[in-house]
C-alpha cells in the first residue's frame, strides 16, 4: 500500500499529538524490537518511534528497515522521530482520504 500526499498529510495531522511508543536504543534494531513494534502497530495503527543518536542517513535507513520488517508505511521523519502507519483490514480507526 502506497500512501498518497493527501493521505500522508492527513496522517501527519493525526500523529502530531502522539508521543513515541517505541524507542530504539544503543543495541539498534533487534528481533525483539521488531516484534514489539509489530505488536504496537497492530494495536495503534499510527505510531511514533524514537531513535537514540545517529545521523540523517542512519535514521532514514532505520525507517526503511522498520517499515519493511513490519509491512508499514513511513509517514514522516522529523529529527529523531519516525512516524509509521499500517491500517487494519477491519475496524480501522482511520478513514484515509481518497484522491480524486
Notes on the structure:
There is one protein chain. A hairpin with a 2-residue loop joins strand 3 and strand 4 (81-85). The mean pLDDT is 90. The protein starts with a helix and ends in a 15-residue tail after the last strand. It has a four-stranded mixed β-sheet with strand order 1-2-4-3, with helices on both faces. It has three helices and four strands, in the order αβαβαββ. It has 100 residues and is α+β, with helices and mostly antiparallel strands. The chain has a single domain, classed as YhbY-like (Translation Initiation Factor IF3, 2-Layer Sandwich), CATH 3.30.110. 40% of the residues lie in helices and 22% in strands.
Question: How would you sum up this structure in a few lines?
Answer:
The protein is an alpha+beta fold. It has helices spanning 5-15, 31-44, 56-70; strands spanning 20-24, 46-51, 73-78, 81-85.
Average pLDDT, rounded to a whole number, is 90
Structural class: alpha+beta
CATH superfamily: YhbY-like
Assembly status: single chain
Order of helices and strands: HEHEHEE
Spatial strand arrangement across the major sheet: 1-2-4-3
Regarding CATH, which class? Alpha Beta
Q: Which term fits the overall shape? A: globular
Reported for the largest beta sheet, the result is:
4 strands, mixed
Amino acid at each position: 500500500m502506497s500512501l498518497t500526499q493527501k493521505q500522508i498529510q492527513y496522517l501527519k495531522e493525526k500523529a502530531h499529538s502522539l508521543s513515541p511508543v517505541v524507542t530504539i536504543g544503543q543495541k539498534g534494531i533487534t528481533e525483539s524490537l521488531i516484534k514489539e513494534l509489530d505488536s504496537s502497530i497492530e494495536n495503534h495503527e499510527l505510531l511514533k518511534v524514537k531513535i537514540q543518536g545517529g545521523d540523517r542517513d542512519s535514521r532514514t535507513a532505520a525507517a526503511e528497515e522498520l517499515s519493511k520488517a513490519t509491512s508499514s508505511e513511513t509517514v514522516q521523519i522529523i529529527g529523531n522521530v519516525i512516524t509509521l502507519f499500517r491500517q487494519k483490514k477491519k475496524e480501522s480507526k482511520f478513514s484515509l482520504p481518497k484522491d480524486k
